[in-house]
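Example record used in the benchmark description.
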Amino acid sequence: MIQQFSQQDLEHVYSNAVNTIQSQMNFADAVTDLENVARAGHGKAAMFLAELYYQGFRVERDSLKAQYWQNVATMKA
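Model output (structure tokens):
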């Protein structure tokens, strides 16, 4: 389970997922990794997801998902 990882491990998964998305590789897996890390308490991952969904960058634009992830990020801050 990803919730058992340290903050450093979460940061590593987050960084890898962001790099994957930015280098136009496997978006679906990277978004899934970001969602898992965000649920485990990584606020930057939640904000990154919010931006992805607001902008429709490499995912379908979805204001409800964007707002959800922004709320998750706010709760983690």
